[in-house]
Design a protein that fits this description.
Belongs to the DAMOX/DASOX family. Keywords: FAD, Flavoprotein, Oxidoreductase. One of its GO terms (biological process) is D-amino acid catabolic process. This protein is of the alpha/beta class and 362 residues long. It folds into 2 domains: 180 residues, 3-Layer(aba) Sandwich (Rossmann fold), CATH 3.40.50; 147 residues, D-Amino Acid Oxidase, Chain A, domain 2, CATH 3.30.9.10. It contains 6 helices and 15 strands. Strands 3, 4, 5, 8, 9, 10, 11, 12 and 13 form a 9-stranded mixed beta sheet that branches. The longest helix has 17 residues.
Length: 362
């Protein structure tokens, strides 16, 4: 009886992008892939590490920036997927208000048909110096429960996890074995991964405060921030979490090219003050500060890179001397999927589908 050889796939990175790609790939009814995820940090074992972005994300679906056909596709697919997951308790329906400092910004809301119950706020007072506002219903999740769920799904499908920091694509190809396909979902790591070394990658520093505030029931975003002329890098928002119940993420900062992962106390004070100015309910004695967070959003000039590259791999490697030779120089297919900045979660399912299509293409 003939047997079909499985295709080896090695995914570098176990953030939301890498995990979702593995989920899409192994969800296909007759998939024939032997999938291994190699990463320095993995869910349940590295959730406190600041060296990856996924545990620290806001993780609400809230598009930003100008219209882009690719972004529209990714975020539309992801919204629908996350919305359909609401009955499982992993995601939740989230009423949201967003405010703008300029009326003209209402003309750039290209995503209003993707969410639910969108409307312009009229005949209501707006916070501080805001000039316009919108109301809509979106979807949100909690990384501390969602990432372990993804991992458990992959564990049940036989996906192997290896906790190891890879230095190069060449090392990944040797570990992956003959004829393996590599998926590069390394986020900011793509800047230093030998064989990629993408200097277009840069961090956007985000600082947050995690509070218990069950009285806050909706997400509020000041899209233009409270001071539209400020260059401080402030980004004011509050995002209720599906888990733990009653918790809210307060933010934040949006500081490009800032690699500092230490807590800035004045910034933390400013975050709470700005959020309370928009939502006075935070000043209730019921509110309790639980923790602080600092993460680096993995951005990239020109947007995310989702494409195929073929690389040459020598038969032997000084970087992995303990591995046996793979023979003569060979070509290895690499599917790149990194550089999503603040939009990793809200692009994840759509981008993963595109990455899998590239992986399966000849």
């Amino acid at each position: 009886m003939a047997t079909t050889t499985q295709q080896n796939v090695l995914i570098i990175g176990s953030g939301v992008i890498g995990l979702t790609i593995a989920h899409v790939l192994t969800s296909q009814p007759s998939h024939n892939y032997n999938v291994t995820i190699v990463a320095r940090d993995i869910p349940t074992e590295g959730m406190d590490s600041q060296a990856w972005a996924s545990p620290w994300a806001g993780a609400n679906w809230s598009p930003m920036g100008n219209y882009d056909e690719r972004k529209y596709k990714w975020e539309s697919r992801t919204f629908n997927k996350l919305w359909d997951m609401i009955p499982t308790g992993l995601t939740m329906e989230l009423p949201t208000r967003a405010f703008f400092a300029d009326l003209s910004e209402l003309d750039n809301i290209w995503w209003k048909d993707l969410c639910r119950e969108f409307s312009i706020i009229e005949n209501e007072p707006l916070p501080l110096n805001m000039k316009a506002g919108v109301r809509f219903t979106t979807v949100a999740l909690s990384p501390i429960s969602y990432l372990p769920w993804l991992k458990s799904e992959l564990d049940s499908r036989g996906v192997k996890f290896v906790r190891q920091k890879l230095q190069s694509l060449q090392e990944a190809a040797v570990i992956g074995g003959p004829d393996c396909i590599i998926v590069n979902a390394t986020g900011l790591g793509a800047r230093s991964l030998i064989g990629v070394e993408d200097t277009k990658c840069y961090p956007i520093r985000g600082q947050t405060t995690f509070v218990y505030a069950p009285q806050v029931k909706e997400c509020i975003e000041v899209v233009s921030d409270l001071d539209p002329t400020s260059s401080s890098g402030h980004a004011t928002y509050m995002i209720p979490r599906v888990y733990p119940p009653g918790t809210v993420l307060l933010g934040g900062t949006f500081q490009p090219n800032n690699w500092d992962t230490s807590l800035d106390v004045p910034t933390a004070q400013g975050i709470f003050e700005r959020c309370a100015a928009v939502e006075p309910a935070l000043l209730s004695s019921e509110t309790k500060i639980l923790s602080y967070g600092v993460g680096l959003r993995p951005a990239r000039e020109g947007g995310a890179r989702v494409e195929v590259e073929w690389i040459d791999v020598p038969g032997e490697s000084e970087l992995v001397p303990d591995r046996e030779s793979l023979g003569d120089k060979r070509k290895v297919k690499v599917v790149h999927a990194y550089g999503f900045g603040p939009a990793g979660y809200q692009s994840s399912w759509g981008a993963a589908e595109d990455a899998v299509q590239l992986l399966q293409s000849s």
